Amino acid sequence: MSQKRKVIKLATVFSGIGAVEQALMRLEVPFETVFACDNGERHIDIDYDAEMKKIRKLSGAKEKKKYTERLYEKKSRKINFVKQSYLANYKIKKDNFFEDVKLLDGTDFNGNVDLFVGGSPCQSFSVIGTKGGFNDTRGTLFYEYARLIKEIQPKVFIYENVYGLTRHDKGKTWNIMQQVFSELGYHYTFKILDSRNYGIPQGRRRIFVVGFKDEAAYKKFKFPEEIKLKYTMQDFLEDNTAPGSLQSVNGKLVKVNKLRGKPEEKYYLSEKLIAYCLSPGTKNFMHAGAKIDLPVARALLSTMGNLHRSSVNNYVTTNGRVRALTIREAHRLMGFPDSYNIVVSKAQAYKQAGNSIVVDVLINLAREIINAEKWNK
Ligand SMILES: C[S@@+](CC[C@H](N)C(=O)[O-])C[C@H]1O[C@@H](n2cnc3c(N)ncnc32)[C@H](O)[C@@H]1O
Q1: Mean pLDDT score, 96-103
Q2: Residue 263 has pLDDT above 80, yes or no
Q3: Which ligand 1 atom is nearest residue 37's CA?
Q4: Contact in structure between 136 and 129 (CB atoms under 8 Å)
Q5: Same domain (yes/no): 220, 120
Q6: 119 lines ligand 1 (CB under 6 A)
Q7: Measured from the CB, is residue 40 less than 6 Å from ligand 1?
Q8: Is residue 64 part of a domain?
Q9: Are residue 119 and residue 51 in the same domain, yes or no?
Q10: How confident is the model over 37-44, as a mean pLDDT?
């Protein structure tokens, strides 16, 4: 007799291009998105406290969402490109994509979320206070994340952030954040995970906090074991693979076929980036047998255009040559298979990929959470 699998009720904030959604899809775990929320880095000038008071009085999430959207329409002419990417890739009712975490009323979703995921942008930490506790984080996006946990009461949450967070303000910020997680009444644990230990040849260390409402599930949970790296960065380059060849099979990225013939030779890099590539400390992407030597770099400098993008350290070396990563390669190196639809401009796509969580890390983490919660039984 076949058993029906649990459909995980997922909610995300700072949703970006949906790394956790990708992870669950790759694990072939059924899930339903209760809501996603991302303002596409558009910032509006309003009195948030006053607006939130008004929003809380409206009846139902739909009304509240409409109100927020109207505020954004009035105050910002910019387009939400993150929303465009998200809607082009994931099944979600339009009514369930929210603009701004600061204007999201979590009480509408109380008790209706299994897994709540978010990584607040790190620039907001500088204002965290010194006394400690929940209210001392007010005015930060971390506060909004914690507030939403309090209001929604998800079974499990995952909070992700840059590794440097633990050292910010001599560790004080991180101490306060830990205090907040404890005040929320969750059993939580944290670890720094590096994507190069979870199948992706990119050095990217991030802190992951996992909180459980249920103590038994918390006790059962362990962070995923590290995996020996099978691929090199070269395996992810379009020079070496046919377009559309990085596919997802049973939770793993699989290279389907190699590109035959001469790779396209286009190299764009800024002088600044070359200097960066040549500096001894540059190890963010692992280089596979390719070295950029000084004469090659100097020759390139004279011919190169200017295509450096921030957010992703997007240089590659192929047999001593240097060029920027293509947008598809940037997504591959964040664990997104070629089936991921890129629907925004190159500039936006680089930025969105660079902001994401590496999918393969989340695949391994989500698998452990699902086992601990027995959601697969
Ligand atoms: C570091 S990125 C996280 C991306 C995400 N973890 C992913 O997997 O793609 C931060 C995201 O927060 C969004 N953001 C910033 N301020 C926000 C706000 N007030 N409300 C909602 N989203 C916001 C940004 O647009 C950006 O996509």
Answers
A1: 95
A2: no
A3: 21
A4: yes
A5: yes
A6: yes
A7: yes
A8: yes
A9: yes
A10: 93
Is the pLDDT assigned to residue 368 strictly greater than 90? yes
Annotate 347-357 with b (16+ C-beta within 10 A) or e (fewer): ebbbbbbbbbb
* pLDDT tens digits, one per residue of 128-142: 666 666 677 777 899
Query: What was the pLDDT predicted at 140?
Result: 86
Distance 54 CA to ligand 1 centre (A): 24
Do 366 and 307 sit in the same domain of this protein? Answer: no
Whether 271 and 219 map to the same domain: the answer is no
Instruction: State whether the beta carbon of 158 lies less than 6 angstroms from ligand 1.
Output: no
Whether 363 and 349 share a structural domain? no
Q: Which residue type, as a one-letter code, is found at position 260?
A: R
Is any ligand 1 atom within 6 A of the Cβ of residue 100?
Answer: yes
Confidence of residue 306 (pLDDT cuts 50, 70, 90): very low
How many whole angstroms from 4 Cα to the centroid of ligand 1?
34
Q: Which domain holds residue 86?
A: 8-228+359-373
- 184-226 pLDDT per residue, tens: 999 999 999 998 899 888 888 899 999 999 999 999 999 999 9
Minimum-distance ligand 1 atom for the alpha carbon of 101: 20
- Same domain as 289, residue 201: no
Using a 6 Å cutoff on CB, does residue 117 contact ligand 1? no
How much is the pLDDT for 261?
A: 43
Question: How many Å lie between the centroid of ligand 1 and the Cα of residue 334?
Answer: 16
Question: Could you tell me the pTM of the whole model?
Answer: 0.87
What is the rounded CA–CA span in Å between residue 99 and residue 43?
Answer: 11
Of residues 58, 122, 227, 288, which has the active-site annotation? 122
Q: Is 122 a catalytic residue?
A: yes
* Burial class of residue 43 (count of CB atoms within 10 Å of its CB; 0-12, 13-18, 19+): exposed
**pLDDT at residue 169, as a whole number:** 81
Task: Please give the distance of CA 60 from its chain centroid, rounded to a whole number.
Answer: 29
Place of tokens 């992703």: 312
Domain count, the chain: 2
Crossing angle of helices 19-26 and 359-373, in 10° steps, is 60
Q: What is the pLDDT of residue 272?
A: 52
Q: What is the rounded distance in angstroms from the CA atom of residue 275 to the CA atom of residue 273?
A: 5
Work out the number of other CB atoms within 10 angstroms of the CB of residue 277.
19
Residue identifier of the C-alpha nearest atom 16 of ligand 1: 41
Q: To test ligand 1's pocket by mutation, which of 10, 13, 14 has the most ligand atoms within 8 angstroms of CB? A: 14
184 and 62 assigned to the same domain: yes
Query: Does some domain include residue 255?
Result: no
